[in-house]
Amino acid sequence: MWPFICQFIEKLFRETIEPAVRGAHTHLSTFSFTRVDVGQQPLRINGVKVYTENVDKRQIILDLQISFVGNCEIDLEIKRYFCRAGVQSIQIHGTMRVILEPLIGDMPLVGALSIFFLRKPLLEINWTGLTNLLDIPGLNGLSDTIILDIISNYLVLPNRITVPLVSEVQIAQLRFPIPKGVLRIHFIEAQDLQGKDTYLKGLVKGKSDPYGVIRVGNQIFQSKVIKENLSPKWNEVYEALVYEHPGQELEIELFDEDPDKDDFLGSLMLDLIEVEKERLLDEWFTLDEVLRGKLHLKLEWLTLMPDASNLEKVLTDIRADKDQANDGLSSSLLVLYLDSARNLPSNPLEFNPDVLKKAAIQKALKSGKKINSNPNPLVQMSVGHKAQESKIRYKTNEPVWEENFTFFVHNPKRQELEVEVKDEQHQCCLGNLRIPLSQLLACEDMTLNQRFQLSNSGPNSSLKMKLALRVLHLEKQERSPDHQHSAQVKRPSVSKEGRKISVRSQMSASPGTGDSSTAPSTPVMGGCDNKPGVEERAQPAEASPQGPRDLGRSSSSLQAGSTGSPSHVSVKEPTPSIASDISLPVATQELRQRLRQLENGTTLGQSPLGQIQLTVRHSSQRNKLVVVVHSCRNLIAFSEDGSDPYVRLYLLPDKRRSGRRKTHVSKKTLNPVFDQSFDFSVSLPDVQRRTLDVAVKNSGGFLSKDKGLLGKVLVGLASEELAKGWTQWYDLTEDGTRPHVVT
């Protein structure tokens, strides 16, 4: 199939991407692809998972492990600036979900095919002529991260590509399904956390400044920081949409805030299928085995009801019947499908001259633009303080968007949906409308699907939308006194490297207050708020893949937000590390000589160089290999004072400096304890073909002769148990071969 897929990709570049780039910016009007060759190496599907439980009988759900490493030749040109650039190679690794639904009793048996990524794929692009491209106005912020965000807008949940195979299939319903449920997370408190802060160069142990990072799919929330407390109380609430719960997990990580790099305090992972079964969990959870501590959570699985029969009870439970605020716990969810608009006015002066700014008219006249040229329409929607915005459609008065948006609603009896169609080109309003949400309560299935007449617009201007209101209902199950919940804590994928930047660039949730046993008065709402005065620890816009302007966007754009910056291919290959013992075989010879000196005619034990304890696990959710270095025992002494050991890691065959990971140095000990976690960005199929190179080395002082190798182990990663992970002791040897696993 690959040659025919290549034909489709070339057509996509020339007929869809090229016109879109030309229309996006005046500086890009002469943009064109001069060559599109995706290469001879086809896309690989390294594994397929089929879900047989918790799925509808009229659908088939497949997860495909996608891997593409292609030597492409994609050349582009911008004639206006005499600029030429291109792409030499592309790598894409990720999990693609394919849904076949509905299954029908007639050929072709499948009504439609939907394709999307559950989370952002790992993308690496090797550019040529990138510096020329970045000199062009409007492109100076171009990066792999931005390109990945563009892909996410089309292919990462809740966005998807749907191919109808039968005309009767409701395409809008398939392309933008209503969420499976809402997870309400009460992030209450923790106890017995580790003190990570130290004073007087480590001589005095301090406390920690803990905060939590909560993930559900691509939705990310961050709690406030509690200063100098090992048993912090947060009492915050978050609400997250759950679209595809088979395979989705709730992941929580705790960190100690520091000025430079935040320290990892522990984590846990819960399967959402188990949470859905229990409906309500109010438990203390033990954090992972690496570090001590426990976490108190209250989790509520809220189902979406298409009728208002229990709305009054829900409003009473969340106290929405007593206050007049538009913020607080949500009683319902509004799902909005923005389809298209018709007969938008071409000349805003004809129907509404007051809304067109004088500055916009003067700017248009100076640039030679006609006021009556076709607009660049976009739609802004808001419910209460939450505002979201559609994509821009260029030079048309009959735009088609086909976009989906969701809003958490505090009280649908009192709130309304405000919609405004704007012209991005002339910075003016093309029409607006207001829809009281109480109107939906009286509709069948609380759903409206129609064309709405726009106010302050042309005589026949209309906007086609589908609105569905769903009441959030907590089904409380009767439990026997000795009932034990079935929710299992999974081993977490721990990551410390780069967490601070990647998390804080996306925070859009606001911390709430309130007692853990009652509904807070100002909780964090589903990641859509961006209220003034809210503490937001975000990095500068130019360093963030998602600037401040985008923080208040929809849950769909939040879910398209990055969960961690991918590692990009550098145009210049880094030089191999000078400190690498792989490039210094002398280190192995010195170690063997030292062993012979230690023997002195006596027989050494089975582990003459000592042992190291490691936890190895691959996190499919983040596409990373996670390695925890716990401790070593019975190391050899490098001098009379013992040794100053540290551990160095490589994921072979990568021997670059950027691929090296190191623990801290433990002074004057033969039994060091590290308990440090490291990760490598690599897919599961790829990592199973690689080897983990672990070396225990002696640090010594600056210019000391006591630097050297204490022992090595080469860990094969081809095991099928890698996804679950393992913790084991390994014998250290001179060159890492013949490792003996100690049970």
UniProtKB/TrEMBL annotation:
Residues 165-285, 310-456, 608-730 form the C2 domain. Residues 1-166 form the SMP-LTD domain. GO terms for biological process: endocytosis; endoplasmic reticulum-plasma membrane tethering; lipid transport. SMART domains: C2. Residues 553-567 have a biased composition (Low complexity). Keywords: Calcium, Cell membrane, Endocytosis, Endoplasmic reticulum, Lipid transport, Lipid-binding, Membrane, Metal-binding, Repeat, Transmembrane, Transmembrane helix, Transport. GO terms for molecular function: calcium ion binding; calcium-dependent phospholipid binding; phosphatidylcholine binding; phosphatidylethanolamine binding; phosphatidylinositol binding. Residues 503-521 have a biased composition (Polar residues). Residues 476-485 have a biased composition (Basic and acidic residues). It is a peripheral membrane protein; Multi-pass membrane protein. It is found in: Cell membrane; Endoplasmic reticulum membrane. Its main location: membrane. Residues 476-584 are annotated as: Disordered. One of its GO terms (cellular component) is plasma membrane. Tethers the endoplasmic reticulum to the cell membrane and promotes the formation of appositions between the endoplasmic reticulum and the cell membrane. Binds glycerophospholipids in a barrel-like domain and may play a role in cellular lipid transport. Plays a role in FGF signaling via its role in the rapid internalization of FGFR1 that has been activated by FGF1 binding; this occurs most likely via the AP-2 complex. Promotes the localization of SACM1L at endoplasmic reticulum-plasma membrane contact sites (EPCS). Belongs to the extended synaptotagmin family. Homodimer. Interacts with ESYT1 and ESYT3. Interacts with FGFR1 that has been activated by FGF1 binding. Interacts with the AP-2 complex; identified in a complex with the AP-2 complex and FGFR1. This is Extended synaptotagmin-2. It comes from Neophocaena asiaeorientalis asiaeorientalis.
